[in-house]
Specification:
It contains 4 helices and 7 strands, in the order αααββαβββββ. It has 140 residues and is of the alpha+beta class. It has one domain: Nuclear Transport Factor 2, Chain: A, CATH 3.10.450. Strands 1, 2, 3, 4, 5, 6 and 7 form a 7-stranded mixed sheet that branches. α2 packs antiparallel against α3 (41-47). The radius of gyration is 18 Å and the shape is globular.
Amino acid sequence: MLKLAATLLLLSTLPAMAAPLPPDLAAAVRNYDVAQFRNDTETLGGLVRDDFVLVNSNGSLENKQQFLADYHLPGFHIAPYVWREPVQKFWGDGAVVGGLIHLHWTQDGKPQTRSLRIAYVWTKRGGRWQAIYAQVTRAS
């Protein structure tokens, strides 16, 4: 009995396994990714808050309007990507979702590629999830 109690005590001090994201947040994240692949600024516009801020990999800042304008540039297209080394932190009405991606895109008719670590901060207001902040960092 003492061994069982000691084992239970030890297990209770280990960090809990990350819980999956709530279904509505997981759907918002998935819809955001798909909207990027389709240059769907209407959907993206609904998935980012009006006070959204993007920190680009070169350190520049973009607001919501600037972020959405990128998708209207001639020849701009983001290819589908796969999240690696995912990060998912969730608390009540907030979350951080991100990880590593190998981004491939076309800009001005020229193919581009870059490995990036991305973190999105999501917030739930009025019953819906929206991104409020994103930071992109070049990965080697």
